[in-house]
Amino acid sequence: MPAARPPAAPPSPRAARSAPDTVRDVIGWGVFGCLLVPVVLLWCGTPPVTAAGAGLGLAAVTGTCWALLRHFERASAGAERRTPVD
């Protein structure tokens, strides 16, 4: 019978800081889409007002998503600090 493994150590604060910023990656792709969609719409012959409206709508959605992601990221970090250690 194999020996029991000791519990894993919690990640150090240094390891948490070196983790990739996935929120920044998601928002970066959102901004890229906000710029690309109007260009493609104009290339396909859509009126400029419609293309600009689509770009502004996507920008609004991207900004809202960014704000929500950052809010919940901060809330999660705060909850981890308040969690009692056994």
Strand content: under 5%
The helix fraction, in percent, is over 70%
Shape: elongated
Rg (C-alpha, Å): 21 Å
Structural class: mainly alpha
Round the mean pLDDT to the nearest integer and report it: 81
Termini Cα gap: 28 Å
How many strand elements?
A: 0
Walk me through the structure.
There is one protein chain. Helices cover 72% and strands 0% of the residues. The protein has 3 helices and no strands. The radius of gyration is 21 Å and the shape is elongated. The mean pLDDT is 81.
Looking at this protein, list some descriptive labels.
86 residues, mainly alpha
Topology:
Blueprint: H1 13-17, H2 22-43, H3 48-82
Helix pairs in contact: 2-3
Q: Briefly, what is this?
A:
Helices cover 72% and strands 0% of the residues. It is mainly α and 86 residues long.
